[in-house]
Give the backbone structure.
Amino acid sequence: MQEVLHNPTQNRYELHVDGGIVFADYVQNGDMLLITHTETPPILQGKGLASRLVKGMLSHIRSRGQKVRPLCSFVAEYIERHPEEQDLLLD
C-alpha cells in the first residue's frame, strides 16, 4: 500500500499510485493548515484514494501537533463523517 507523502516545497500532501497522483493543497498559518483543495485524476476516481490521502494527511498533521481548517468540501465532509478526527479542527 502506498504511503501518503508530505511535500512541503509544494505545500501539499500526495499519494502516488499507478495512473497519477492524488493530492491535497494547503496554506500554512502558524500551527494551522488551511486545506484548500484535493484532486484525484479522473481515471483514479471512485477507488477511495482521496479518503486514504486525507486519512494519512490528518495522521501526519496530528503527529505534528497542528490543527486544520478544511476549506475543501471533500476534506470537510471526511472530517464530519469521522468524529475521531474532529479534534484536529481549529476551534
User: Anything to note?
Assistant: Residues 4-88 form a domain with the Aminopeptidase fold (CATH 3.40.630.30). The mean pLDDT is 95. The chain has one domain: 4-88.
